[in-house]
Amino acid sequence: MKMKKSIILLLLACLSACSPQARLSRLISRHPELSAIDTLIIRDTVAIPAVQADTLLRIEQIHDTVHLEKGRLAVWIMKHHDTLYLKGKCKSDTVIKTRVIPVVRIRYIKPDHATTMIGKIPWLVTGFIFLCILVIVLVLKFVR
């Protein structure tokens, strides 16, 4: 019974591993040369529509036309008989906002053949140990 529990614990220890996110963060912390800071540029465009307004007033003292213009705003004041005409117009505008956001990008470096073989050694050793334990358990079972 004790042997079964130890085999199950050994199997669970061999098969359990951490998540890919944890492995990646551990790899980046040990090898910072694998990450490169890249820049993400976002351009937002906001269109501001034109604004217009007309108004009528009765003023008898004004006898002339007045035109005011400053930047995007233009205003006309005209008198026709007993009516004062006000006309204003605001030209449309587009606001472009550029944001630069630095992001960390993972660089993939393809390993050479020797590095690949060295990476397989722990799995081969674990498999060999598991196979040895399995053979020992089978031999002990048949000996009894």
Describe what this molecule looks like in 3D:
The protein is an alpha+beta fold. The protein contains three helices and six strands. The protein has a four-stranded antiparallel β-sheet with strand order 2-5-4-3, with no helix packed on it. Strands 1-6 form a two-stranded antiparallel sheet. Strand 4 and strand 5 (83-90) form a beta hairpin. Helix 1 packs antiparallel against helix 3 (113-143). The longest helix has 31 residues, at 113-143. It is rod-shaped and about 125 Å long. The model has no long low-confidence stretch (mean pLDDT 79).
Q: Can you tell me the residue ranges where pLDDT is under 50 for at least 5 consecutive residues? A: none
What overall form do the CA principal axes indicate?
rod-shaped
Q: Mean of residue pLDDT?
A: 79
Which percent band covers the strand fraction?
A: 35-45%
Number of DSSP helical runs: 3
The portion of residues assigned to helices is 25-40%
- Class derived from helix and strand content: alpha+beta
Widest sheet, order of strands: 2-5-4-3
